[in-house]
């Protein structure tokens, strides 16, 4: 990734001397952190979750498969997602996006996941989340994925990324369950 930036002369945008070395150092720290997360997920994978780098050259793009939690409207579904890590990971959180159709209060219509653990460290400008709920460098990919499984089981309709799904979750749970069942069937190719 950094080599590509050098070839395309994007490195020049860093401006001050020493910033290139900082970027290389951040890249190495991020690469090592994601390798550590991969090792942990390989040795002790949480039930219903598979995740790892898309290829061995790029540890900053991961693919994940998340099984719908038991006893929920998403049970039996298998939902693919992509985690994109910034160069300064683990100082900044990755972004996560489902690559299949999803209808959920905390998932934007384009698949982006909206939960506290994926929000940058610091205070919430909207005053909704405490800083303890937001990203910190001690978090891990496993914790993110487990949080997403919990989110699938228990949506937060007060912080809706998908307004239609939030409203339906609150006002017409039966219809929400029907849509979720259709999404589960699509995830299985049925």
TrEMBL record:
InterPro entries: Ub_conjugating_enzyme, UBC, UBQ-conjugating_AS, UBQ-conjugating_enzyme/RWD. Pfam families: UQ_con. The keyword Nucleotide-binding applies. It catalyses: S-ubiquitinyl-[E1 ubiquitin-activating enzyme]-L-cysteine + [E2 ubiquitin-conjugating enzyme]-L-cysteine = [E1 ubiquitin-activating enzyme]-L-cysteine + S-ubiquitinyl-[E2 ubiquitin-conjugating enzyme]-L-cysteine. Accepts ubiquitin from the E1 complex and catalyzes its covalent attachment to other proteins. In vitro catalyzes 'Lys-48'-linked polyubiquitination. Involved in endoplasmic reticulum-associated degradation (ERAD). Required for sterol-induced ubiquitination of 3-hydroxy-3-methylglutaryl coenzyme A reductase and its subsequent proteasomal degradation. One of its GO terms (biological process) is ERAD pathway. Pathway: Protein modification. Residues 24-189 form the UBC core domain. Keywords: ATP-binding, Nucleotide-binding, Transferase, Ubl conjugation pathway. Interacts with AUP1 (via C-terminus); the interaction recruits UBE2G2 to lipid droplets. Interacts with ubiquitin ligases AMFR/gp78 and RNF139/TRC8; recruitment to lipid droplets by AUP1 facilitates interaction of UBE2G2 with AMFR and RNF139, leading to sterol-induced ubiquitination of 3-hydroxy-3-methylglutaryl coenzyme A reductase and its subsequent proteasomal degradation. Residues 1-48 are annotated as: Disordered. Its EC number is 2.3.2.23. This is Ubiquitin-conjugating enzyme E2 G2. Belongs to the ubiquitin-conjugating enzyme family. It is an enzyme of class 2 (transferase). SMART domains: UBCc (SM00212). GO terms for molecular function: ATP binding; ubiquitin conjugating enzyme activity. The active site is at 114 (glycyl thioester intermediate).
């Amino acid at each position: 990734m950094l080599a590509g930036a050098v070839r395309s002369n994007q490195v020049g945008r860093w401006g001050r001397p020493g910033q290139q070395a900082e970027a290389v150092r951040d890249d190495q720290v991020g690469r090592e952190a994601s390798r550590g997360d991969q090792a942990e997920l390989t040795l002790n994978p949480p039930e219903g979750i598979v995740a790892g780098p898309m290829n061995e050259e790029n540890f900053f793009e991961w693919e994940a498969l998340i099984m719908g939690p038991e006893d929920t409207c998403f049970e039996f579904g298998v939902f693919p997602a992509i985690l994109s890590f910034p160069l300064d990971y683990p100082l900044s959180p990755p972004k996560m996006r489902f690559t299949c159709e999803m209808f959920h209060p905390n998932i934007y219509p384009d698949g982006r996941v909206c939960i506290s653990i994926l929000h940058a460290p610091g205070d919430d400008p909207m005053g909704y989340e405490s800083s303890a709920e937001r990203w910190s460098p001690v978090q891990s990919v496993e914790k993110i994925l487990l949080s997403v499984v919990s989110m699938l089981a228990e949506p937060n309709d007060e912080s809706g990324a998908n307004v239609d799904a939030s409203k339906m979750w609150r006002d017409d749970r039966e219809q929400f369950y029907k849509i979720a069942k259709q999404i589960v069937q699509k995830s299985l190719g049925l």
